[in-house]
Structures are given as C-alpha cells and as structure tokens.
Amino acid sequence: MNHAVGKATVAVAGSVDWRDRLYRFYNSQAFVAFLFLLVPVLLLAALKIWPVFYNLYLSFTRYELFEPPRFVGLKNYNYVFSNKTAFQSIINTLLFTIEAVPIGTALALIIAKLLDQSIRGRVFLRTLYYLPVVSSVVVSAMIWRWIYSPQHGLLNYLLGIVGIPPQNWLNDPNLALISLVIVTIWGSIGSNMVIFLAGLQDIPKDILEAARVDGANPVQSFLLITVPLMRPVILFVVVTFTISIFRNFGLIFMLTQGGPFNRTNTMVWEVYQNVFGYLRLGRGAAISVVMLVIVLALTLISFRVLRERQGA
Amino acid sequence: MADLSLARNAHGSFTTREARLPLIITYVFLIIGAIVMIMPFVWMISTSVKPDREIFGDTIRWIPTELDLQNYSDAFKQTNMPRIFANTIVVTAVAVASQVLLGSMAGYVFARLHFRGKMLIFFALLTTMMVPFEVLIIPVFLLIKFFPLAGGNDILGQGGTGLINTLGGVMFPNFVSVFGVFLFRQFYLSFPKEIEEAAIVDGCSRIGVYWRILVPNSKPVMGTMALFAFLWSWNDFLWPLVVVKEDSLKTIQLGLSVFDQEQGTAWAELMAASVMAVVPVILLYIFLQRFLVSGGITSGIKG
C-alpha cells in the first residue's frame, strides 16, 4: 500500500508526478486486464480458436506430415461420404447414439425421480450411482472387458445360471455395439441423474399435489406431469449425452478397436485411425469437420431450448 | 395452502404431498439399480485379491477364500508403476494449479474490469466451449510437434520433435480451461462489490484487491475447479496416448491401457492396477463431492 503514501507526496511535490502517472497506468483497468488475460487468452487462442480454422484448412488438403499440405479441394469430403469404411463410421456413431441415448436418458430420469424424495440412504445411493462417472474410461473399459470375457467372464457366468449359452460379447459382430452401449449407459447414468435432480427442483410442487388430489397415481403423475414439464431438461441431457458419445474414444480403443468388421468404428475412431494409423491428416481433418458441424448443431439446439426455458 | 406444502422437513427438503410409489417398491428398484452400478467395481476389487485358480475356476467367488495381495506387487513390478504415478501426479498437479490460477485471473477480469473489446473476447471464449477437444486433435498435435525451439526444433518449428514425448507436451493443452474462466467469473459476479470498493478507497490497487480480497475468499470455487481439473487430468487418455511414446513418460491411464495389451489376459494384475488407478479418484470424490455437486450441472459442457 506504498502508493497511498506516494499519492500524498505527489500532492506536495510536483517533481514526482511521473510516479503518480506510472501508478495510474499500473492500476488502470486496461493494464490489469491485459496482464491477467495475456496468458489465458494466448493459450486458448492457440488451443481452441486457431485449431478450428487450421483443421478446416487441412480438410481441403492432402497432408502426410513429411511434405507441406497440398490443396486438393473437396477430395477428402468426397472420400468421407463415398468410402465404405469412412461412411460406415458416421452410420455407426448414429446407431450408437440411437441405441444408448433413449434408454440411458429414461433410466437416469427415473432414478433421479426416485431419489428426489427424503428417503433414508438417499445421499449414499446417489454416491453409488455417480461412481462410474468418477472412474476413468480406461478403468471402466478394463473392468467391462473382464466382465465380457468369453471364457471366465462374469456376464456369461450369470447368464449361464438362467440357461443362456455363453456369448463372445466384444467379438460378435451382432453384439459388439450393444456391448459398448451397455457400458456407455452404465457410465453416464450418474452425470445425467445429477442434471435431472437439479431440473426436478424447478417443478412446482402444488401441481403435483393437485394431480394427486384429482386421483392421479404415481405413474400417471410422472408420465403426464413430470415428464412434460421436464422436456427442456430432457432435451439438454439428450444433446450433451449425444455429444459425449461422439467424443467417446477411450471405450472403443480399449474394448473393440473399431472391430469386429468395423461394426464399432465410430467417427472419433476413424479420425484417430486416419491420422495416427495411416498418416492421412487431410482425411482425418475432414471427418473432424463433419463431427464438429454435427456437435455444433446439437449444442446450438440445446442452448436455444435452455434460453426458452429461462424465458418461460 | 401452497405455503403449507412448502414447509421444510427434517432433511431440509420440501415435504410434498404428490403421489409417490410405495416406499418398498422405490427401495427395491433403487437398490437393484445401485447393485448393478457398483457390481463392476466390486468385481474388480474381488478379482484383484484372488489367486489365479479362483479367478479361472468353474464357479464365481465374490469373496476369495484367501486374500492374495501378490497381484498388487506383480502389477507394480511388471510396469514401471512408481514412475507412472509420479508422472501422473506431476501432470495433474500442474493442471490443477494452472487452471485454478489462470481461471481465477481471467474470471476476475471478466467479472470486474471494463475495457474495449471485452465482450468480443468473452464471446469468443464462450464459443470455444462448444468445440470438443477430440475434433481439434490434429491441429493441436501439429502445434505440439512443431512447437518452436523445443525438442530440437528451430524457431519455425522445423527439424525436431517439438514437445512430442515430453511431459510438457502432455500438460500443454491442460493449462487453462474455459469452463474454469466462467466458473470464476460467475463466482466473482456474485461477490459483494462493497468490500472491494472500501479497499480501493483505502488505497489498495486493483491487483491488491484481487490478491488480498478475492483470492482468499474464493476457496469454494477453487475447490470445485481443482476437483474438475484433477478428474480431467487424472482420467485423460486420448491426449497422452497421442503425445507420449516412451514408457518412462506414461501417465496412469496410458500405463494401464498398454499393460493390458502387453500382458494379454493377466486379469488379476490388471484389476490390481485398475484399483490403484481409481482409488485416489474415488477417495477424493467422496471427500470433496459437495464441490462437484455445485459445479456438476455445467459439467456437460466441459473443456
């Protein structure tokens, strides 16, 4: 706090005027803002803004790392939509979403509704449901690989008790995607549940009470009042859940590596394969751009819905 | 009438008189669900302390007949566990410290200071929150590879390997999170201005206000940020996979995944290693979960 003294001195002697000016510069909003924002803004520009544009540029080039990128027009996009494997990755990502999101969202909402009452052990149960979210994708994948193991896996053992023959979960072309969907739902219920629990607080209690007085049973009350009132939150969860599936690389890497027969080859895996497997950076960039466009469209939808919700 | 129904009960939540399922059905459903959720973890722990003959026996034993901790020491020996843990701790600690510091500084600027172009920068950062890291992996990889004056690179980033295969390369994308900037901004916006104004009247500088008043008072939001940064960094897989080639630089998730491929089906050691990777995270979560809940809503759009 020396400058307080400094200021007082300035008032007496004009000769130290430059110290006052220096202090005023040092204490100006613009200088402090510059000083504090310099590092974060430079980092984010390099890591988040420049890459979007450079990725777009690369998607129009042929680039194999050892020579500079060469412009090839729309060739990479043509490849993405006409090559069987690349196009399959888009279809697989959509299939993955369609299989995981409706069931996963419904389960999370039901669990949130059941946990949204003052019952004994509520906090403990909530913690248990959230645990898979905290665990890393690698650890989760590792555990599930062991559960899915054809010879000594837990799942085949449990199914054997009820007379279902053992399955080769991760290597059967008809089961591989479903097996990943199960792990994904298991791993996401906790985070979606937390969002739903927050959303449930906003439902006016007197509407639910009025429904009960009018003779609605719990199931009717849930389906006819809670679900319609939660529509914006449900859409938000659907969108963020979908984006998390688009981003899910670790599970594919650990469990199936895109196989068997490309059945679990999603877009994020196709990018990784093209770039770090075949060194075709241009093609990888084109698939990334397609992914980014879908993700941005979904995010904008969810923002719009959230804004409507706040306005209402 | 409505007011009566809003009376708080002993648990602090509102008593409602809405139609509820009978308690017994609620419990049966919730407990079965919870068992399914934690069964994989129980199975992991069970496998990790079992001798091999019980792992590959004909019947499933949840509780092993004898406790066999051999798997843990084997897991430790077969991979360079101490080194892997040290790498992970360094990378995570730097990410946590840096995201808390840079997030709080930028958050303060956006919450309190006014200057030309502020809204432009703010919305540019806001937009980047919508872009998942996975779709930017190629340019960010190139940035790290052609990083000027690192790993034998010249000033133009040519000639060497840049930050590839260095811990710095692993850390680089995790120095700052936009989520953190917004978290701190929201917190500082709700912080009473009067205290700062009083300090300024008393002759405190802006940086002094930030350092002596805002920083000491933002422990809850720092806890939230630290916990998220910890989880992201500790559990990060794709980026270390892309950047690190050498065993001595691997982080825990990477070490685990490679361990898996090299060892084939050494399930017991694998589960032991998994337990070691996940226990610090679960402990931290259980002790700090109050921080997670407050920030959990926004976690859908992390980055």
Structural summary, described in words:
The complex is a heterodimer of chains A (312) and B (303). Chain A contains 15 helices and 2 strands. In chain A, helix 9 (176-200) runs antiparallel to helix 12 (231-247) and helix 12 packs antiparallel against helix 15 (281-311). Chain A is globular. With 312 residues, chain A is mainly α. Chain A starts with a helix and ends with a helix. Chain B has 303 residues and is an all-alpha fold. Helices cover 64% and strands 0% of the residues of chain B. Chain B has helices spanning 2-5, 23-48, 52-55, 70-78, 81-112, 118-128, 137-145, 167-171, 178-189, 193-201, 206-214, 219-235, 238-243, 252-263, 267-296. In chain B, helix 10 crosses helix 11. The radius of gyration of chain B is 25 Å and the shape is globular. Chain B starts with a helix and ends in a 7-residue tail after the last helix. In chain B, 41% of the residues are buried. Residues 1-13 and 295-303 of chain B have low confidence and may be disordered. At the A-B interface, helix 1, helix 3, helix 5, helix 6 and helix 7 of A face helix 2, helix 5, helix 6, helix 7 and helix 11 of B.
